[in-house]
Write a structure and sequence with these properties.
Elements (H helix, E strand, L loop, with lengths): L7 H17 L6 H25 L8 E9 L4 E7 L4 H17 L8 H20 L3 H10 L1 H11 L4 H34 L6 H4 L2 E3 L1 H18 L8 H8 L2 H26 L1 H27 L4 H20 L4 H32 L15 H14 L6 H14 L7 H27 L16 H19 L2 H25 L8 E3 L16
Helix pairs in contact: 1-2, 1-4, 2-3, 2-4, 3-4, 3-11, 3-14, 3-18, 4-5, 4-6, 5-7, 6-7, 7-9, 7-10, 9-11, 9-12, 10-13, 11-14, 11-19, 12-13, 12-17, 13-14, 13-16, 13-17, 14-15, 14-16, 14-18, 14-19, 15-17, 15-18, 16-17, 16-18
């Protein structure tokens, strides 16, 4: 289903490469030219994503703008791209955060400027490719490709412990990816045995259902890779180090997009393909999600470093996303997907503001600030909105996502005592208000105790341009979330229906058989149709 009759998804994925090619021919000292090329390249990618969003048809759950051609024919590997209501908003989020990150680096990145922008544009290509891939090998290629530029962004332009943080990030993600690769190969051979056709295509994989016992192992392999990327408790330990040591643009893109790859992987691959395992693992995944919510909040509360506090808040917030995702109802899954978008803007804005303060004072310690609202009134306003968004104030984006997740978790029909999980998760909202407002109070209010803060510069015009889009989306989603909900509605409902129907089918796989062929067409649901157990 291609509304434009053009390979626009390929244009989108590889448009940053055009910027890379131009930058390669620039001299190392031409910093302004390099920055301008990177900015125009990222804005071009954003324009293409806007065209896709304009022509996107939200009433259907079918894959749109599909491109499918043979890549490695003897192994059944295809260059297969497509997007639906689950991926289209994540693609747009990636496209809008990239130019914001590049603009935020204007004065922050002063060494190896050429290499930094090359790596950042390559990272954008890999992220977009992962969101749009419908072939499992192609997805794996882009998934692994993301590691390389992010490794260098942390390791070259990061803080004092950047090498340690970069290696830890790489090793954690790579180890999880090995298990995912084994699971992908297992699915390939199962599909070939059952159908006689060599294929890694996701749509082809969805025409078979794996035996319940085998599903548990395959889901665990996929789930480990995705849980590390989210990151879920207890696989989160790489995240604070990576966030704290990464340069500001790296922290923003890491929080805004890269962490969402794990959740997207659950939604696109692990959960639809292994529904029996989803039902079996649901209590354990929900338990880990709730632990992550509370643990992340408690650890954030005692952090003396603003950036580390925001990093641990991500562990808590993404615990909410996982709780909503595994509720398997329209409200919970929509809330999870919307909260992924919300987190990208609210936490991204917080990282940008912390980076702006660091550029001025070269410290992120909360104790080194205090009373700066008096000298930086504009920064105060942006910081306040981002903080209130992070704690879920009504009227801002975080509130909408959290309410939907709470409703979805409360009404989870597939898990006993779901209400208690919801109540426990709700304590995370209270704790978030405590640690975020306490941090904001200590940084912004009170007397100015340090002389260096007396003449602190307020936001520059460039910094205002960086923050305004983030705040606009925070308010827009909080006040009028209907366009975002409508975009994802049909695909979310189809996601829930597929898991239900495939779960029932998995109970009919004959004993001793690894898998069987089923009719599993992607459904096309009207937006108002409800999903029942």
């Amino acid at each position: 289903m291609n509304q434009l009759n053009a390979p626009i998804l390929s244009y989108l994925i590889f448009s940053p490469i055009i910027g890379v090619l131009f930058i390669l021919f620039c001299g190392r000292k031409n910093h302004t030219i390099i920055r301008n090329i990177a900015m125009f390249s990222s804005l071009g990618t954003l324009a293409i994503s806007a065209i896709i969003l304009y022509y996107f048809q939200p009433h259907t759950s079918l894959m749109q703008f599909e491109e499918n051609m043979s890549w490695i024919a003897q192994w059944g590997i295809n260059y297969h791209l497509g997007l639906d209501g689950i991926s289209v908003l994540l693609v747009f989020l990636t496209a809008i955060l990239t130019p914001i990150c590049i603009l935020s680096s204007w004065t922050y990145i002063t060494k190896r400027v050429k290499e930094f922008h090359i790596f950042f544009l390559l990272l954008e290509t890999a992220m977009l490719g992962a969101f749009l891939s419908l072939d499992m090998v192609l997805f794996y290629v882009f998934w692994e490709a993301m590691l390389i530029p992010m490794y260098f962004i942390i390791g070259v332009w990061g803080g004092p412990r950047r090498i340690y943080a970069a290696i830890k990030f790489f090793l954690f993600t790579f180890v999880g990816s090995v298990f995912m690769l084994l699971a992908i190969m297992t699915m390939f051979f199962i599909h070939k045995d059952i159908t006689g056709i060599a294929s890694f295509d996701l749509m082809a994989m969805q025409k078979i259902i794996v035996a319940p016992g085998l599903q548990l192992w395959l889901f665990a392999a996929f789930g480990l890779a995705f849980a590390i990327k989210v990151p879920m408790f207890p696989f989160h330990t790489w995240l604070p180090d990576a966030h704290v040591e990464a340069p500001t643009p790296g922290s923003v893109i890491l929080a805004g997009v890269l962490l969402k790859m794990g959740i997207y992987g659950f939604m696109r691959f692990a959960m639809p393909m292994f529904p029996h395992a989803v039902m079996e693992f649901m209590p354990y995944m929900s338990t880990l999600a709730v632990i992550g919510i509370i643990y992340g909040a408690l650890v954030a509360m005692v952090q003396p470093d603003m950036k580390k506090l925001v990093a641990y808040s991500s562990v808590s917030h993404l615990g909410f996303v996982m709780l909503g995702l595994f509720s398997l109802n329209a409200q919970g899954v929509q809330g999870a997907l919307l909260q992924m978008i919300n987190h990208g803007f609210s936490t991204g804005a917080l990282f940008l503001i912390v980076g702006m303060l660091y550029e001025r004072r070269h410290t992120r310690m909360i104790a080194d600030y205090g009373g700066i609202a008096k000298v930086t009134p504009m920064l105060f306003v942006f910081f306040l909105v981002a903080t209130l968004s992070s704690i879920g104030l009504p009227g801002l984006n975080g509130f909408v996502g959290e309410v939907l997740i709470m409703v979805g978790s409360w009404t989870n029909q597939y898990m006993d005592h779901a209400i208690y999980f919801t109540i426990a998760a709700a304590t995370g909202v209270i704790l978030a208000a405590i640690y975020m407002l306490w941090m904001f109070q200590r940084v912004m209010y009170g007397p100015i105790k340090h002389k260096a803060n007396e003449n602190l510069a307020d936001l520059s015009p460039r910094e205002i341009v960086v923050l305004v889009p983030m705040i606009l989306f925070i308010v827009w989603i909080g006040v009028y979330s209907k366009p975002f909900m409508k975009t994802m509605d049909a695909s979310v409902r189809d996601f829930n229906v597929q898991i239900q129907t495939r779960y029932k089918a998995s109970q009919n796989v004959p004993k001793g058989q690894k898998a069987m062929i089923i009719a599993a067409p992607q459904q096309q649901l009207p937006a108002e149709e409800t999903v029942t157990k």
